[in-house]
């Protein structure tokens, strides 16, 4: 394959070109998918212990390249030093854990005689077999971790993978994928497709030789892919509007500290960021004050100028900053009370807190993917639940209360994939189930869940 065109990748921190990736054509995509199809026939027949060993080697190699990849992540997606390094280390752990898990997963044997009329001489042997060629599409915000969380479970199960990284993130994503290839995968088993999703995306997702799509990204693109892909099975993690529900008996210091950590890390560019606070009136004044106090501790700046830990960094591009600014301006016009922040310098938006946000404001419902947090005051627990559930999204929610009985009652009523009790919303650790309901996703990720999702059951029935 000889690419004719390239896409410049610029750093969101300096606007400098830091690398380029091929803008692949349909013919390139055909070739990569065909190679994956051929590679699959060899890979699926490898004994599991060989596939597992291979993942351990990738994890080791990744740690050897920690410094290089950390530096690339900082430049390409604007993470601070600490978050970038932690993404690399977390990913090595994820790959190792995937290998450990796959070794210990087993099939099943179902006896027919448990069903009325069944006899002892009949039983089904249930195996989990690979699906074929898995298309893995990752977003910009975790270019390494959200690539590995698809590639590793797909490969260990015997699938071939075609990996399409987000364009902003494709240098880091390709760096990781090349390590997978470098340790000696059979030819074609993992292929990398680069190019803008808007140009080449539809062609890949509708390709007749793609057998499964594992996608993480926005609800808008996820919806579009789901329509295009028709009968191809999907595993999708999409957008969110995670609520922190705060009841009158919450420990407000702990609550404020989790809310600020959850809302502003990596400038809120996380699907699981806390994106609204829903608090009962009795404690709203006190909570708002404590959140504002905690926000003073946030470190704000540009990772190329300040080494170490930063919470709020420039957003990924100008369009994202414009979008967040639009939400801020509308909330101001509609009468929300700005408690702090709201300023913009280039693509850096200062951590912003609004109180008295009402349900007629976009900020109450839309996912900013930026450092702006609305406080919505409610009269009761019931109203808090009603507003949480009125969102189109259903990724995660937090409940803050010191009454465990009440925490479980509220958790049961929330229409989300995961409820965190007295903690911020978050995906990790990576072996826990991670899923969104409503517009937040289809299916369940998390190491063993992803392995299961990317295999299918093959039943062979013995009749003695
Ligand atoms: P995005 O714009 O939806 O892009 C995600 C991926 O889809 C990118 O690789 C993109 O490629 C690709 N793509 C775009 N159009 C496509 C098409 N027609 N066919 C196939 N692929 C296509 O999302 P993002 O801006 O990278 O990430 C932010 C969003 O992702 C937020 O909404 C966030 O909540 C969500 N997210 C969710 C989770 C979760 O686990 N729930 C995790 C992280 C992020 P290009 O970059 O080339 O356009
Ligand atoms: O952006 C979405 C990620 O899946 C969030 O992961 O909660 O570990 O930051 P995280």
Defining traits:
22 strands; alpha/beta; Aldehyde Dehydrogenase, Chain A, domain 1; 464 residues; binds glyceraldehyde-3-phosphate; 2 domains; six-stranded mixed β-sheet; 14 helices; binds NADP nicotinamide-adenine-dinucleotide phosphate; 40% helix; Aldehyde Dehydrogenase, Chain A, domain 2; seven-stranded mixed β-sheet; globular
Notes on the protein architecture:
The protein is of the alpha/beta class and about 475 residues long. The chain has 2 domains: about 260 residues, Aldehyde Dehydrogenase, Chain A, domain 1 (3-Layer(aba) Sandwich); about 200 residues, 3-Layer(aba) Sandwich (Aldehyde Dehydrogenase, Chain A, domain 2). The chain has a 7-stranded mixed sheet, sandwiched between helices. It has a 6-stranded mixed sheet with strand order 7-6-5-8-9-21, with helices on both faces. A 3-stranded antiparallel sheet has the order 3-4-22. Helix 13 links the parallel strand 18 and strand 19. Helix 2 packs antiparallel against helix 4. The protein starts with 5 loop residues before the first strand and ends with a strand. The mean pLDDT is about 95.
